[in-house]
Specification:
Layout (H helix, E strand, L loop, with lengths): L35 H4 L13 H4 L17 E4 L11 E2 L1 H6 L5 H7 L1 E4 L9 E2 L5 H9 L3 E2 L3
Parallel strand pairs: 1-3, 2-4, 4-5
């Protein structure tokens, strides 16, 4: 056996704290002395009683400032609907059964049909739809039901 043939051991054992003075990590167990951080578990966001960072940041007021919170609908083009059967009622359930959309996401964000592409089969649509898609569906012999 040679030293260069021995497999490397990368596992390090957990530090055992508070095992007396001789261990080098006794008494305060590496936490320093006194203060809140030496005593219990405190959240990472704690800043020693100072005003929290989130409260020091300015407000984002006004129209269109917080766009990340807006929910945009899932977009489906008219050309995708060609895989459906003739006379099908198009709604969230139908589209999820054909694996066009995810049903859970569709219920959260909604679905909108846009007019990109062509459609050749008549369908009954029960979802929000754009004007160009409406023209193409009616031209193909389909109809749109809006509640």
């Amino acid at each position: 056996m040679k030293l260069n043939n021995i497999s490397k051991i990368t596992k390090t054992e957990k530090k055992r704290l508070g095992l007396g003075h001789g261990s080098g990590r006794g008494k305060t167990a590496g936490r320093g002395t006194k203060g809140q951080k030496a005593r219990g578990d405190i959240p990472l966001r704690f800043e020693g009683g100072a005003i929290a960072l989130i409260k020091r940041m300015p407000f984002h007021r006004g129209k269109g400032k917080n766009k990340m919170f807006k929910k945009k609908p899932i977009i489906i083009n008219v050309s995708v609907l060609n895989i459906l059967d003739k006379g099908t009622v198009v709604n969230i359930k139908t589209l999820s059964m054909k694996n066009i959309i995810n049903e859970r996401e569709a219920k959260i964000y909604g679905v909108k049909i846009l007019g990109d592409g062509d459609i050749k089969i008549p369908l009954t649509i029960e979802l929000p739809i754009s004007k160009s898609a409406l023209k193409k569906i009616e031209k193909a012999g389909g109809r749109v039901k809006l509640d």
